Amino acid sequence: FCTLPPKPITEGDWNGAGMHTNVSTKSMRDEGGLEVIKQAIYKLGAKHAEHIAIYGEGNELRLTGAFETADMNTFCYGVANRGASIRIGRDTEAEGKGYFEDRRPSSNADPYLVCGKIFDTIMGPEAPEIEPMNKESA
Does the pTM exceed 0.70? Predict the structure, then answer.
């Protein structure tokens, strides 16, 4: 039996362990895909609490807003921002297409539930726009 707690050492300055999940669809990888990625991110933001609820036990110890994480109760995204809930890579922004990384799932999350929830959400109805989090202001 093996467990993978998201924050095995809670004393001191230690990063936790996440199951960062890279996400793309064909339309995200096609020309103009960055706009499709942003629409997916807005949808994820609208259902943030639902995602957190299935993203692993003990995740509140890891998602504190410190150690390259966003606070568990706040949804944000940014380009090349490891402190955001969702990170868009610099290469994706530069090329205008690619993928994004959901940094919220913990190391002990069920990958099938995480992927199912992400795709159920991003393939659903539209959601309101969210302003990106500037890395420098984080």
Answer: yes
**Amino acid found at 104:** R
Q: What averages of pLDDT result for each successive group of 10 residues across the chain (138 residues)?
A: 76 86 98 97 96 96 90 96 96 98 96 97 85 67
What residues contact 67, with CB distance under 8 A and at least 6 apart? 13, 14, 15, 16
Instruction: State the amino acid at position 77 in one-letter form.
Output: Y
- Kindly state the helix (H) or strand (E) to which residue 101 belongs, with its residue range: strand 100-102
User: Distance between CA 19 and CA 102 in Å, rounded?
Assistant: 9
Cβ-proximal residues to 37 (8 Å cutoff; 6+ apart), any chain: 24, 28, 88, 92, 98, 99, 100
Q: How far is CA 8 from CA 46, 56, 68, 135, in A?
A: 30, 14, 16, 27
Coil, strand or helix at 111: helix
